[in-house]
Write a structure and sequence with these properties.
Length: about 240
């Protein structure tokens, strides 16, 4: 009998080892996070993992499909593919949530806030908006991050007919609310390390425009899925 194992294999029959061969390859947990958050198209998945190369994303999706974690189905136009979690993939939801909750509890917020990314922050915010707290008409909210380089400094969230869209180029609509903030402050609020009230009170976040939309921001902004998990590290 050969002692050789496949490249990347732990060569152990233990279920932990076999599961880790699928789950623990670089970026896989983040791709699963995006799928569990509702992204199904390749370009949407890319927006959730902006620093992952398209080639590597394609490779990881293929691996997950081969492992039976996701199913890829052609939809609509030729070349358009939907990626959907199988039952095996859905059962990883608890694993991903537990991993995120653990990180929120036990990793220093100063470390997590070193890895700031405006495109990921805005993409996360877009999909977790509480649309019922916004006006029934079209609503356009502009976010300005003066500490970020041109190209990622300004973002627009456009909410219309129950759908939220994220734009990095001016969509051309009247702006209802301007939000001016450092990326650090907005990320702190989003992750639950600070509050909108505290950051506005300190002058770190400035709201101008429609007063009703501004007053309700704490309701429509939503927070990270892990924001309610409190740190267990000594302050």
């Amino acid at each position: 009998m050969s002692d050789r194992t496949e490249p990347g294999s732990y060569g152990q029959f233990c279920p932990v080892a076999m599961a880790a061969e699928i789950f623990c390859s670089r970026w896989t947990a983040l791709v699963l996070r995006e799928l569990l958050s509702g992204s199904t198209r390749f370009n949407d998945l890319r927006r959730g993992v902006p620093r992952m190369s398209p080639t590597l994303l394609s490779k990881r999706l293929k691996e997950l499909e081969e492992a039976g974690v996701i199913a890829a189905r052609a939809k609509g136009r030729a070349g358009t593919v939907d990626y959907k979690l199988t039952q095996a993939g859905e059962e990883l939801r608890g694993v991903i949530m537990s991993l995120g909750n653990w990180g929120q509890r036990w990793i220093e917020s100063s470390l997590t806030l070193k890895n700031l990314d405006p495109s990921l922050l805005m993409w996360d915010m877009r999909r977790n908006l509480t649309l019922s707290s916004l006006p029934g008409r079209r609503c356009n909210v502009r976010f300005d991050y003066p500490d970020i380089n041109a190209g990622q400094k300004t973002w627009w969230l456009v909410i219309e007919e129950g759908v939220a869209d994220l734009c990095s180029i001016d969509p051309g609509y009247d702006v209802d609310l301007y939000v001016r903030s450092s990326l650090h402050s907005m990320t702190s609020v989003w992750m639950g390390h600070s509050t909108l009230k505290a950051e506005i009170g300190a002058g770190n976040i400035i709201l101008t425009g429609d007063k009703a939309v501004a007053r309700s921001m704490h309701g429509w902004l939503g927070l990270s899925l892990f924001a309610k998990e409190k740190s267990r590290l000594a302050s």
